């Protein structure tokens, strides 16, 4: 219900500071107020009548329309807050600020501009949120990387969130784009799906077509725990994706000049497991019995990035791959997302000892907030290089 309360507060703010002061006829003002209220109530509607906020089961067009309304409300709320700063400046200016006060608070022209800007940002945000991600290339510089792994490339996907919004055609296009890279290795850092196995079986089916010469591996995310956890893990593995839960796998890849090389892939359980009484993340158990980290580089798959320092304190590895944050989704909002995720939000982070982490901005997003502004989704093609 937190999202419902958040949208209610936004609606109250917009009605009080944007709609009420407008110098327009009573009829249009009532209609505008009703539209604002309807946008704010979409989340509450999904909670009580569409299967819940985590995985609302509505037609795709309805999800897009409802989320578009919430996006417009969000941006109008932000613009209204920014307008308050101008009003404060006008008030502090005294009589010389009266014209500015009227222009920014009561003028129909300024209201139309704010409304148009909110609609434009909302439309662009939704469009970018649900588009199939582009391939983005990154270089991970690893301390003491063996020469035979210099230049080795792999694909990282994260936060796929197959849902009533990101359906089978989306997954098909994503898989086609990944396979066009002819990857040796595909690594998926959690949050595969939202919804029940019966509802999403068709939407996740294209993931079985992912092709990688050295395999497709993943770790669980927090959203796996919200549904039928054991059935979903079994279903994901039936698609040819090995889910590493506090365990590791040693893979042989084609290294420099065609020479074989080895990597140790470890995957930890997600901290959300604690809420459901399931196995907690254990990085020491994950790499127990693995080849020496100084001889065979280790890559850790951990959905949430915030435990990166703790994992490194307990175990040695060269690179951690994470997701979860969706990169913050909106420039500006990403700073708040970073704070609640241990200051990590997207991109590379390096510890003083040289250990590196890449936080993926997501290959999809949760259908309860499908908005991206300035933070695109991606298919990450990561190249290893010596530090």
Task: Provide a descriptive summary of the structure in words.
The chain has 387 residues and is of the alpha/beta class. It has 2 domains: 2-129, no CATH class; 133-386, Purple Acid Phosphatase, chain A, domain 2, CATH 3.60.21.10. The chain is built from 11 helices and 12 strands. It has a 6-stranded mixed β-sheet with strand order 1-12-2-3-4-5. Strands 6-7-8-9-11-10 form a 6-stranded mixed β-sheet. Helix 7 (197-204) links the parallel strand 3 (186-189) and strand 4. The mean pLDDT is 92.
Query: What is the overall silhouette?
Result: elongated
In the CATH hierarchy, what is the class of the largest domain? Alpha Beta
Low-confidence stretches: none
Distance between the termini: 47 Å
Number of domains: 2
Output the radius of gyration.
Answer: 24 Å
User: How much helix, percentage-wise, in residues?
Assistant: 25-40%
What structural category do the secondary elements indicate?
alpha/beta
Mean pLDDT equals: 92
**CATH topology-level fold name of the largest domain:** Purple Acid Phosphatase, chain A, domain 2
Number of strands: 12
Number of helices: 11
Query: Biggest β-sheet: count, sense, barrel?
Result: 6 strands, mixed
What is the CATH-assigned architecture of the largest domain?
4-Layer Sandwich
């Amino acid at each position: 219900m937190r999202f419902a309360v958040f949208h209610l507060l936004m609606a109250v703010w917009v009605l009080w500071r944007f709609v009420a002061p407008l110098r327009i006829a009573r009829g249009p003002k009532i209609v505008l107020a009703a539209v604002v209220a309807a946008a704010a109530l979409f989340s509450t509607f999904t909670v009580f009548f569409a299967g819940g906020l985590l995985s609302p089961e509505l037609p795709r067009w309805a999800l897009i329309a409802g989320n578009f309304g919430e996006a417009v409300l969000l941006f109008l709320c932000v613009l209204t807050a920014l307008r308050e700063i101008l009003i404060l400046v006008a008030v502090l200016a005294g009589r010389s600020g009266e014209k500015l006060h009227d222009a920014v608070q009561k003028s129909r022209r300024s209201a139309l501009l704010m409304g148009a800007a909110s609609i434009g940002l909302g439309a662009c945000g939704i469009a970018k949120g649900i588009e199939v991600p582009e391939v983005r290339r990154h270089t991970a510089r690893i301390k003491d990387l063996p020469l035979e792994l210099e230049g080795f490339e792999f694909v990282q996907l994260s936060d796929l969130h197959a849902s009533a919004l990101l359906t089978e055609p989306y997954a098909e296009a994503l898989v086609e784009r990944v396979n066009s890279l002819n990857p040796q290795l595909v690594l998926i850092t959690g949050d595969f799906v939202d919804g029940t196995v019966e509802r999403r079986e068709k939407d996740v089916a294209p993931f079985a077509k992912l092709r990688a010469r050295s395999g497709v591996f993943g770790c669980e995310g927090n959203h796996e725990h919200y549904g039928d956890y054991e059935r979903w893990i079994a279903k994901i593995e039936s698609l040819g994706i090995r889910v590493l839960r506090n365990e590791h796998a040693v893979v042989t890849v084609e290294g420099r000049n065609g020479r074989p090389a080895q990597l140790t892939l470890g995957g930890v359980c997600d901290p959300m497991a604690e809420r459901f009484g399931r196995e907690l993340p254990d990085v020491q158990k994950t790499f127990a019995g693995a080849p020496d980290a100084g001889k065979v580089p280790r890559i850790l798959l951990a959905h949430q990035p915030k435990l990166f320092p703790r994992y490194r304190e307990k175990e040695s590895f060269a690179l951690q791959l994470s997701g979860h944050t969706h990169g913050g989704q909106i420039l500006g909002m990403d700073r708040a997302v970073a704070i609640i995720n241990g200051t990590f939000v997207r991109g590379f982070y390096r510890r003083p000892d040289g250990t590196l982490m890449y936080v993926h901005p997501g290959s999809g997003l949760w259908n309860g907030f499908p908005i991206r502004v300035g933070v695109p989704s991606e298919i990450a093609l990561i190249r290893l290089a010596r530090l």
